[in-house]
Amino acid sequence: MVTSRFSKKIGRWEDLKVLEYGPIEVEPASGALNYGFSVFEGIKAFRSEDGSVKLFRPDMNAARFKQSAERMNMVSMDSELFIDAMCKVVAANSRFVPPCGEGALYLRPLLFASNPQLASENEEFTFVVFASPTGNYFNSVDEGLRVLVTETYNRSAVGGVGYVKASGNYPATMLPKKLAMEQGFDDVLYKNSSESHFVEEASTSNLFFVRDGKLYTPDTSRRTILEGITRASLIYLARNELGMEVVDNESLTVEMLKSSEEVFLSGTAAGVARVKTLTFEDESGTDYNYPSYEVGKKLKEMLLDIQNGKRKAPPSWLIVNVPTLRVQDQ
User: Residue 141 has what DSSP assignment?
Assistant: First the structure.
């Protein structure tokens, strides 16, 4: 793992340290434990056919990490230092990167307030990034997901923090997902908290659907939806490689979703995941089936080919080659 600390007294981040994975000390009075001053990211490194290891669009994760920290009134980290930390942890764990096409090395950068005082203004922060090999996020990704559209729970609200990766956003979705899984569902889809005729996103994934030849994904400008990096990548590929019209600047209604021909989810962890059935809680469990998976499948294959080095990435996408580094204690 890679760590660093920031103190307002010093005014800068310490040099990055590459350490063996292990416990870290946290003060009981820290802002993270008491008030939830904690943000994180999710990023993947992929092995190419030639054996090299590449980070996929880490500049976008760096920008979102900074945005999350600033929204939560925390110190931020510049893009160069963030990407350097990602490269160091991947290089130190390169032996754990799965073979080409068989998964990825998942990175979890985490930033939290670590000063030992009960205060709304934090003076010290700890950064850590660790890694783990990963495969499919959903067990039933190949045959398609069963997703419950909830009326009981909300994920975020206008003026809140739903558009950033605040750690506290995620526990709120875990009980609804657990209850849904007990009923045989794979995930939960949320509506807008104040205007329930609009759909937003799933527990940890952005929503896409195809209708009348167009690709739709809910608008993120109201800041209730996370601006996914996979989402942005799929929008680009649909427009520039498939030549599709993409509607990504409108709030999308439940009725539009119901009458669509194809539905899928996207995210760093989920990748591109087909939705086979949507069940609406407010309609006594009425099922809507989506047998098509033509657009989502094409986009998934193109994205994976880029991530695995089989297809050239668009010029504007930052793909970072990571050199090999021996694991070391510092």
Answer: T
pLDDT at residue 306 greater than cutoff 60: yes
* Residue 230 half-sphere exposure toward CB, CA atoms < 13 A: 27
Query: What is the rounded CA–CA span in Å between residue 212 and residue 317?
Result: 29
Query: Which of 303, 215, 279, 300 is CA-nearest to residue 252?
Result: 215
Residues 203/188, Cβ–Cβ less than 8 Å: yes
Q: Which residues contact 282 (CB under 8 A, 6 or more apart)?
A: 149, 151
40-73 pLDDT per residue, tens: 999 999 999 999 999 999 999 999 999 999 999 9
The overall pTM is greater than 0.85: yes
258 catalytically annotated: no
CA distance to 125, 198, 200, 218, 220, per residue, from 250 (Å): 38, 10, 11, 6, 9
| 54, 165, 191, 300: the active-site residue | 165
